[in-house]
Amino acid sequence: MTLTAPAAVRSEETTEPGPRRDHSAAWCAASLTVAGAAGAVLLVAADRAAEWGRGRPFELFWLGMLIFTLPVAYWAGRRATGARLRLAVLIAYASFSFLPKLLRNPTGPLYHDEFAHWRQSRQILLDGRLFEANPIVRVVGDFPGLHATVASVSSLTGLSIWHAALAVLISAHVLMVLGVAVLAQEIWRDARTAAIAALIYGLNSSFLFFDTQFGYESMAITLWVWTLVAMVRALRSPAKAGLAVLLIGATVVTHHLTALGLIATMLIITLVVTVRAIRRREAGPVLWTAWGLTLAALVMTTFWLLWVAPKTAGYLDPYLGKALDQFAGMFKDNGESGRTLFKQSIAPWWEQKTAFAAQICALVAMAGAAFHLHRKREREPVALAMLLIGACYFPAAVLILTPSGAEGARRSWAFSYLGIALVVAPLAVALLDRWSAKAAAGLLTVFAIVLVGNTAAGMNPSYRFPGPPVYGSDTRALTPEVAAAADWLRETQGRRLRIVADRYSGLIFGSFGGQDPVTGSVTFPTYDVYLTQPGRPLPPDLIGQLSAWRFGFLVVDLRMARQVPEIGIYFETNEPIPHNGRPGFTLGQLTKFDNMPGTIKIYNSGHIAIYRFDFATLGHPAIGAMK
Hints:
Protein name: Transmembrane protein
Order of helices and strands: HHHHHHHHHHHHHHHHHHHHHEHEHHEHEE
Membrane topology: Multi-pass membrane protein
InterPro entries: LipidA_mod_glycosyltrf_83 (IPR050297)
Main location: membrane
Shape: globular
Number of helices: 25
Organism: Paractinoplanes durhamensis
Radius of gyration: 28 Å
Helix content: 55-70%
């Protein structure tokens, strides 16, 4: 019958098993949404606990980070995860990993260099001029890539400078994570390895806080990664070299250290490619492309540093020279001139221990990656280059033992850790394929240890957590009193005034106040104004400099006589001021300006006093002064 036949057909179709639907995308979205919300709540709770001085901010912070990043690592390393889902997971990871810094200061600059970059971007928006001198970080104006971008976004969208900067920085952070994945994909041709490489790179000590701050490296490091992507693609297809040249130029005009790091990275890749070509007796377009791009980076960087930014060498030299002197001194005085790690740190013991464990994990992982790469018959030359770049991580870590070298060591890790990430990722995939569940549990444990340890080694708690104002801190120096004094001077006397100040007052007066502070140097020792004993005249040569360069005001912070700066600096790193755990000034040295001819007090708020210079009478001793 015609009615029963179709029924029989339908019965057979319903009993036949159909294709199983993949619900992994829905499970992934649901799990990461819940984990992300829980993680964000815990991060906020950690900040509030630190700010109020009670609770367990470290435990809350890492619980919030791991509750999201560990599921991300699972979904990224899962063999059945599709390409689109992996892309979404990496974007979610990059966005969430920006959250700790965003929550740290969502409304304005906080870190020392952020004030300089905020000011520089604002000056471009107000005056429309690039390359303006910056009184906070003197080489900032010579590298306008970040500031021009932020000012453009602010002008086009109507956003404030700070919110335009956040838009640029979040975009750069996401692109950096994706750039590492794309570079790994170019080398290993495996999406799973690429995703794991991106997550491993996120373990470096600069990832969560330093390379998310409003600073030129935060944008330049992304340009560096994508320049390497363009270079690797150009090695396979030399016709694509134009994009690499464009990205090299963008990197050079954005940040000096990243440009130098780019040259070093490209040179290592080029040397490995050259050795391989010599062994195979091949000299073709690949070799010429590698050398051409490396020389282009060298020429552009040299031109920029010599003709556009000649102050850069003098800016960097004290850090490197002093670090080498301190490193040599460690062997002469049994390490007494060295730096004690975590000295007076409030970080919990387990965080300090993981900082050392993370280095051991990196060393073991690199040894395993080298062995794994050695067993491959056909070795990708870029992979060998990345092995060499990753190996540079360990000698740079030794400089962390010197006070001046610590900052440079931390900054180098953002570059060398790329090599670690790219060569360790295929080893992690091999372990997952061989031992599956056991390897996954072990790798997730190592992932958590290295994430905690590297962050602890790279950033002090005061950078990571809010808290009460601390004199002499690069993150907690901003107080309502100093901000009010800076606002008063700008509103009553105008902006772009040349003023003498200490490091921390100068930071606020030079950014929010819109002034041009000087905080002293070997050639312009303005700290001698403060060091001069009561009743003694100021050094005549210094008065002549101040007068000739039209410095009109002096800012005095009385806390210099009552407190020791947290970072051990009052003005600048080479200051001739004793640092023995006691204040470097007496109260008399700082209040002598009240009775000194030529300094007229125009503002006083308790801790902060502002004086106007009167060079017609300055330098004459006060009546009844000591002779």
